[in-house]
Fold:
Amino acid sequence: MEEKSYWLGLSLTPGIGTKRALRLLNHFGDVRNIWGASRSDLLNAGLDETTTASLLQTRSTIKLDEVEARIREVNAYFICQRDDAYPQHLRNLPDAPLVLYVRGTLLKEDDLAIAVIGTRSATAYGKDVTRMLVKDLAGAGVTIISGLAHGIDAMAHRTALDVGGRTFAVMGNGIDSIYPREHKNLANDILGAGALISEFPLKSQPEAHHFPQRNRLISGLSLGVIIVEAPEKSGALITATFALEQGREVYGVPGNIFSAASRGVNQLLQEGAKLVTSAQDILEDLVITRQQLTVREAIAEVVPLSETQILLLRAFTAESCHMDDLIRATGFTTPMAVGALTTLELQGYVEQDRGGLYRITQAAHILIRELNH
Structure:
């Protein structure tokens, strides 16, 4: 049996999360030894009586090979923290799930991700703003993360799909069912351009206490969180709190001061969230954000250059260029150019000076020479 199968077993054990699992791993040296340890060995490792009994009970009642077969039957798979496919941003969180259940694809370029969330009772204004922001962000290569709920979430997912972008839906129930049911078609469409993700085992119901837990994954998978509309008491505000605790950026879209749907987000702006009126505000900010999260190393090693990025590099006719010159030379829209330049900065191929000019690095010169041969 593979190592990750035993991580699956630990994740199904009530009372064992990341912190306890890592302490046990430090003691036993291998997850297989944890799973097979005796009661006395577990107690000697510092596990309390209740959790020890829980692990022994789980081990005696659950057949891991049968659990894995049921996961495959619903066209899903699972990854543990030790897997290369486990999202890098999430891996660094102290309460990261031991196991994620996934339907769809996780790509390394999805590290460049922004969450777009808000109220289920979205106004026409909120939907229009979501459509505008996501169209430009997804068009620039940013993966859009949301929660598959009605309102802002659904609009964010659908817009990303409409422009050929990638999107993740993080779920508050088992990955073998869709909630809300009305979004079954949307969920199926997401499978072709992203993934459905859950930390909850199969058959888990969408219980109320699952959603705050789900919200920390929405922010944890992202470089930042955009709150479009949120009333004073909203799950979106819980996500904003998680984002701040995780060191993520929180962006707010200003709303009508007379609208209940905007009271929460307007309050966030008063408290210091970054005001957003266009996707460009966020694309430019991602360069700063990545310095805090060390995204440059994560992306530079694994993300191949897109055709858009290569065309942009080749558009540099001088050592330094203004973005307007690059736009004229390539015919790209401003969001496309900003998105490509942002990713190139993350990868170390482009630098920006204080005067706003972009210049290509020595690494980019070498890459262009290789491409020309």
Remarks:
- The chain has three domains: 1-67, 104-285, 304-372.
- The first strand starts at residue 77 and ends at 80.
- DSSP finds 19 helices and twelve strands in the chain.
